[in-house]
Amino acid sequence: MSRNLLTVVLAAGKGTRMRSDLPKVLHRIAGRPMLGHVLTLAGSVGGGKLAVVVGPDMEAVRKDALAAAPGVSVFVQQNQAGTGDAVLAAREAIAGHAGDLLVLFADTPLITAETVERLLGELDRGAAVAVLGFEAREAGSYGRLITGPDGSLAAIREAKDASPDELAVRLCNSGVMAFRLPAPLDVLGKIGNANAKGEYYLTDAIEIVRREGGRAAVVVCDEDEVLGVNSRGELAAAEAIWQRRARARAMAEGVTMIAPETVWLSFDTVLGRDVVVEPNVFFGADVRVDEGAEIKANSYLEGAHVGAGARIGPYARLRPGARLGRDVHIGNFVEVKNVTLGDGAKANHLAYLGDGSVGAKANIGAGTIFCNYDGFFKHKTEVGEGAFVGSNSALVAPVKIGAGAYIGSGSVITKDVAADALALERSSQDERPGWAAKFRAMMARRKASAGK
Ligand code: UD1
Ligand code: MG
Questions:
Q1: Which of 34, 346, 359, 452 suits a disulfide with 385, CB 3.0-4.6 Å?
Q2: What is the pLDDT of residue 152?
């Protein structure tokens, strides 16, 4: 839906309870900073204009915001004097905008676009301000939504300023608010800081709007959607909720998970139809798995593309640049980094394939190593189509194995091998017929005479 909307994302704030060198909003959920999640939400709600408020020493936050949402305007809040003050840091954007205003908190990363649409719908129904609320299991330090006898929203009371009666209220403020006001800066300008924290509370806008005759509405959503992250424990709780949702979505789209609660997905994981994911699999950033592929237990994937019908693991590790064609098999204790494998290629056991390419239907034996690093530079190993690399071979890069060539087991290959050739690099076998039987007989005699 296209709207005339300015979204202001608040990303400053001290985050003292995180005890971290990293700004709170750059802590990650599913591999992406919380701020990135919220900027994506802002983008999907639409409406065009997007502003982010960061702290003065938050160059990293600014960069992150610009990377996640290139058109965003970034404002600096000089002193973290509260959420009301933070919105005013974006004064310039608000002044230049005639339309609705949406405020999102970068520390509240799980809200869905549908819920924000519901909130904005209240503005269309005549509310001057709409607040997203939830019934808290434990209201703790959340602001309480104080409703009037008719059920309308009268005020928001921060926990530190609340009376015992108000503290008993379980309907809480998520922090997400939408305004349709003729002069929002006037309302925001009237917010004072005479409260327990000495901060300018955005939540005070409710009473100001009401005094001026505007209606305040509450939209209630599930608590899981509006978890505000103020500590590492809450960060982990948000991660758990995000993962639960993402697994459910993947399964709804046709992915089989035997033990979904043990599978970790990233914000950008793409799993095709009829993919099967066994227990204890971790998907880092930038992984795509095509239809019907199987990811067996205890595998770790990041920056990888797995072709349709491929079979990965158990205990496989795919690292960035692993590009696997259709029906490729990567077995236990095989590590693949920056290697393209053609359709039907196999490396089933205990191998390191780093920097290079493996042609279609080639077979990489157990214990094969691509020796890609000389201590200074990385080099490429190229294995041609249908080649057969015997077990325990070391392919010292740069090196090319021609199509259809055979490498004898245990070889250390330092020179290119021609197509369809056999390359062997080991001493030839020496065999002595009957030696073992004679040896045993001799030793048995020796032992018998020693025992007398
Ligand atoms: C706020 C709400 C509270 C609500 C809770 C929901 C106020 C006064 N309180 O409390 O009613 O229940 O969120 O999670 O609004 N920020 C700035 N600059 C500041 C202060 C905060 O940018 O000066 C940003 C923070 O980065 C964060 C958001 O605003 O993204 C909320 O700030 P936080 O300090 O976490 O507020 P809460 O105490 O959680
Ligand atoms: Mg908070």
A1: 359
A2: 87
